[in-house]
Design a protein that fits this description.
Elements (H helix, E strand, L loop, with lengths): L4 H17 L1 H41 L3 H19 L6 H5 L5 H4 L3 H21 L4
Helix pairs in contact: 1-2, 2-3
């Protein structure tokens, strides 16, 4: 369901305010979106390579009566498929800088608080209109 024009404007305003309050977050989103496609394609290619290699080993295992090799090939195919379809865990904040304190990550209260108060007022106004139903 597409957003209405007013909702789209509100979303754009919230995004601009968030990026203005936290430029480091904006840089992380820009960096993440540019690298994501490359990493996803690489992950899919490696996973599909594992599936194809497992399939070849499975065909070889069937041609020679080696059940244990067939089971191993199937497990390899399954691991390759799971690797291709799952997203990697991103623990960038926890693993990248253990010395960063929570005070450094705290949002600015003056501009951010005012913005959030405006959003809460708009939300209250909007939800107040629904009370007539």
């Amino acid at each position: 369901m597409p957003l209405s024009e007013q909702e789209q404007k509100m979303l754009d305003e919230m995004e601009r305010q968030l990026f203005a309050d936290d430029p480091r977050l904006a840089r992380a989103f820009r960096h993440e979106s540019s690298d994501r496609g490359r990493r996803d394609r690489r992950r899919i290619a490696v996973g599909l390579g594992g599936v194809v290699a497992g399939l070849l080993v499975l065909v070889f295992a069937v041609s020679i009566p080696a059940v244990w090799l067939g089971v191993l090939a199937f497990v390899g195919m399954l691991a390759g498929a799971i690797y291709a379809v799952t997203a990697p865990a991103t623990g960038r904040d926890a693993s990248s800088d253990g010395a960063s304190s929570s005070a450094q990550r705290a949002p600015k209260t003056s501009a951010g608080g005012r913005f959030m108060q405006q959003m809460e007022k708009r939300w209250d106004k909007r939800s107040g209109d629904d009370s007539r139903f």
